Amino acid sequence: VVLHDFYLSGLIWALDCDPRYAGIKWRELHYGSGHTAVAEVARATDEGRAALAYPFNRSLLDAAAGVIVHSQISLRLARQWYGPEAGADWALVPHLRQPVERERRQSARERLGIAQDAFVVCSFGLLGLTKLNDRLLSAWLASNLAAEPDGLLVFVGELGDDPYAVQLRQAIERSGLADRIRVTGWADLETFRGYLAAADLAVQLRTLSRG
Fold first, then answer.
1. Residue range 41-97, pLDDT digits in tens
2. Which of 20, 60, 92, 190 has the greatest number of CB atoms lying within 10 Å of its CB?
3. 204: left (phi over 0), alpha (psi -120 to 50) or beta
């Protein structure tokens, strides 16, 4: 198993919506964290948010022939949750990197339909509660950049259909500046790198990172 994220509550919560896996979130929570955790999440006003505190990975780890992680943080979390010997036989393999040739800003902007004199703020990756995209939107709208006709805010990533996504879309529409706020949807590598080249400023906020 390549354990890219130590905490898998998002994955398990999504699986639970599939009739084939109904109840998996409670089974996994109980198996990994016990009765107290189940009671805490069940009593919470927002089950999904309460579940973020728990790893939901014990079944996966117990079934794995081996585990690969990308950082020391995952090894520390394993010991924190499962005891001092946990993770002792895991392999630590950092993310592999390969240099890329950056596209020129001018050509990237031409390809993406962005004016050469625009000031472009981008946020990269899947949108959601943990990325604080609403905070960035509010900050941009309150700044001088929103008042400038050449100011552009771009969220380079997929925005789902959960309540957070609905509220973010509504906030964009209410702003009256939807023509200068882009949500690209899922971006292929060429598009992703194009916005990296075109951006003047990238803002990557996080909350509930859990390591």
1. 999 998 888 898 999 999 999 999 999 999 999 999 999 999 999 999 999 999 888
2. 60
3. beta
Where helices occur in 23-162 by DSSP H, the ranges are 24-43, 47-51, 58-63, 72-82, 105-112, 133-142, 144-147
CB-side neighbour CA atoms (13 Å) of 77: 20
46 token code pair: 């927002």
| 153-193 pLDDT, tens digit each | 999 999 988 889 999 999 999 999 999 999 999 999 999 99
What's the Rg (C-alpha) of the chain? Answer: 21
| Per-residue pLDDT, 210 | 79
Asked if residues 120 and 200 have their Cβ atoms less than 8 Å apart, the reply is yes
Contact 90, 75 (CB under 8 A): yes
Number of H helices, E strands in the chain: 10, 6
Closest CA to 3 of 52, 51, 75: 75
Q: Which long-range contacts (CB under 8 A, 24 or more apart) does 100-108 make?
A: 100/193, 102/193, 102/196, 102/197, 103/193, 103/194, 103/197, 104/197, 105/197, 105/198, 108/194, 108/195, 108/197, 108/198
Say whether 148 sits in a helix, a strand or coil: coil
